[in-house]
Amino acid sequence: MKPGKQPIKPSTPGESSSSARDNGPPPGYMTVGSGSTPEAAARLISMLDQDSGYGGSMANGESGRWHGGIGEDRPSAPPAPIPGSSTPSAEQDRQRSHVLQLRYNQNKNALSRAIHGAIDLLKGFQQENLKWPAHYPTVPADSKQNAHIRSQSRPGLAHTQSAMGEFQPSRSPERPRAPRRAGTSLGSDFEPESSAAAEREQKPEPRLITPQLAHDFSVLKLELRMGGRGQADLVHSLEKGSIASLLDGQIQQSVRHLYAIKERIEDTSSKVLVTGDLNAGKSTFCNALLRRKVLPEDQQPCTSIFCEVLDFRENGGVEEVHAVPLGSVYNRNDESTYTVFSLNDLEKIVIDNEHFSQCKVYIHDIRSVDESLLNNGVVDIALIDAPGLNSDSVKTTAVFARQEEIDVVVFVVSAANHFTESAKNFIFTAAREKAYIFMVVNGLDVIRDQQRCKEMILKQVHGLSPATFKESSELVHFVSSNAIPMAGSPGGDGDDDPSDKGKGKDPEKERDFGDLEVSLRRFVLEKRARSKLAPAKTYLLNVLGDVHSLATVNRDMADQELERVKKEMDALEPEFEESKKSKIETGEAVDRLVEDTTSDVYGHTRDTLNECISKVGEQDLGIEYPGLLSAYQYAEDIRDSMLHEITESVRLCEEHARTQAAQGYNGIKNLGILHLGNMHADVMFRPERMFRKSAHALARQVDIDIELWDFFDVASLWERQEKVAGTGMAMTVAGVVGGRLVGGVGWVDGVLGAAKIVGSNNIRRLIIPGIIAGVAIGISYVLSSVPKSLPHRLSAKLSQQLAAIDYTHSNALRISSEIRRALKGPAKDVQIGLQRNVEKLQLKKEETSKLKAEATDARKYFGNLFRTSNELRQNVQRIDLEAAPPAAISAGL
Hints:
Keywords: Coiled coil, GTP-binding, Hydrolase, Membrane, Mitochondrion, Mitochondrion outer membrane, Nucleotide-binding, Transmembrane, Transmembrane helix. This is Dynamin-type G domain-containing protein. By secondary structure, this protein is α/β, with parallel strands linked by helices. The chain is built from 23 helices and eleven strands. The strands form two sheets. It has a nine-stranded mixed sheet with strand order 6-5-7-4-8-3-9-10-11, with helices on both faces.
């Protein structure tokens, strides 16, 4: 198409947009084609007295010709210039458009840099969250404050309002004050408040984590819902790791959203999403905008997939439908990614959500560029008709996700149903980045009390989106889309649709819809700084505000944690040293107790057995001598009794050892309780289980043979005489010696005297009988002394044989070893308990040191995050999207 010309008509300052529309087309030259260059756009804007679709970035977001009531003094347009000549006004507009274009590019680049900075902050925060789980404000607000918050704003969102001018609601004086949101309009963000509101407002608390802080989060707010429990209660009931995990998910989602926003502001085209509740008339509204019945309409829900309406010039000038199958990524140059249908098949496609995810509808809008939204000559526009929000959860979730890639949201509300719960949730989500939402209240013609309906809906808008309500004259429209005449159905023969009969006969409804179209064009085209860049700024302010709040909380929490850890370390260090000292001293005391008990038992056993073995022959064994004929049996009985006595002595030594072991165990137990307390493992000690090995094990190794000489113990007799003599000698050495000498001389004299008397012959005859008598007397004496000599003889042999097998040492070692083994268990338990106590304190010390290092790093990190996020947020706030052009340019230099 070739560029056409239109006559220039003068305009007066303060002329409204409706009067400008009624007075004829706007002045200037307009280039129509498939796309535009900045130069062509500047030419179009200069001739339309606008600024390449950036009129919204001028003072108050409006320009003189097209926005009524702006209050800006502008000279009337001069008469039409002579062809081929240049006027100062045209040069001024051209320069102004270039300045605004430059300002737009600067703001876009500044926002791109801020987005990258915010992404870096969030990714760094995410990494820190893995090392040191971030704290989330979990102090619940009291009931009065909660009621006040609920009466003032929607729960969970608190933004910063930066829209221009003061706002005083006139429709509902009693309407509660709106929550503060992050907007992009120029001007003061102060909003007057009543004295009653000032009294109700809670004074700032000196502590950091206030009850209100949990409600101030917008983007990084943890959305938790469970029964009737409140948000703060649920967050407060979660563990620290769970909160950190949920926060990590929110950060990832925010990073993805920031990437989507950056891609969106870099895109020169604009996407307009038309959404709303089920049967709100979204498709009817889209058809009314297009002045053509393109999308199917029905009393029942008929749109199940996204329908994106585009200008047919983007499809090579061909009107058709591209249906994108599920799981495919649309690429117009790749026909394998979509299926081509005619416009007549659109009604079947939009209800087939089992095979298609979306469809691209390319149509030809025959209206002029100053009336058409698609064919506007400035930017490429995509009009997206979305499924109803409350149709089902899958479709509703898809609409929520799709709004992230949308520049402008047109929310269609049914005048009969107002805002449903799903509509409020969607607006809450969209308001995280879009402070301004274009509201269309459809179906007003069926409402009897229309004024009451308008007041009720505006009151809801005030609570849902205060920035939108503040400019409700531009952003909130009450229309009846079904009263707008339009062309026939796609592919029809041009005849009027029967359903269109009667349309176009109500000028007031058409005028209302015409005002809506003008406002929508102004919002999408002229105020592109607001519709294109403002959502990015709003979202950045919200996410940076959340990061700043979290950094503030975690910085102070890190300080508190560091102080706590330092105190814990100061208390833990002496306890650890005392534990190590106690381990050494108690271990030595336990070992010494075991060794002393073992040594005492060994010495006692050795002494007792040695004494028993040495005196067993002198003891009365209680066995009577039966006579010479049973002497051998008597000897065996004597031997067995001696062995029994020795074995009984061993048993007594074992009993003594059990007693000593019990005493040793009690001593070890007392040491364990003293140093370990309840940590001491109280194991039951059973002394009766000791010495299970038979006490006769060594005694059975003794084998004493009874010999004949065992019955005759001459040596013992001699020893007894010597003992008697020795006893006599003990009296006086002199007396004994003298007596022996005297006695010896007398005995010799008697023998010699007797021999003289008897004679030598008689003596010879008496020698043999005498010898026999002596022998008989000796044998009788020896046999009579068997009961006395046999025990001594057997005792000597037994002692000799026991000494050969080291019986005393073996038993003493066996009993003492058993004592050592019995006491080693409790002693080892005490030592292990002491070692575990030291290891536990050491591990606790290491963990505390690690916590101290982590808290130090966290304090440093969150301090830097606090400063960086605040600086970045201030930089974003300084990005003025609605600044007026410089005065020099406005004055024509």
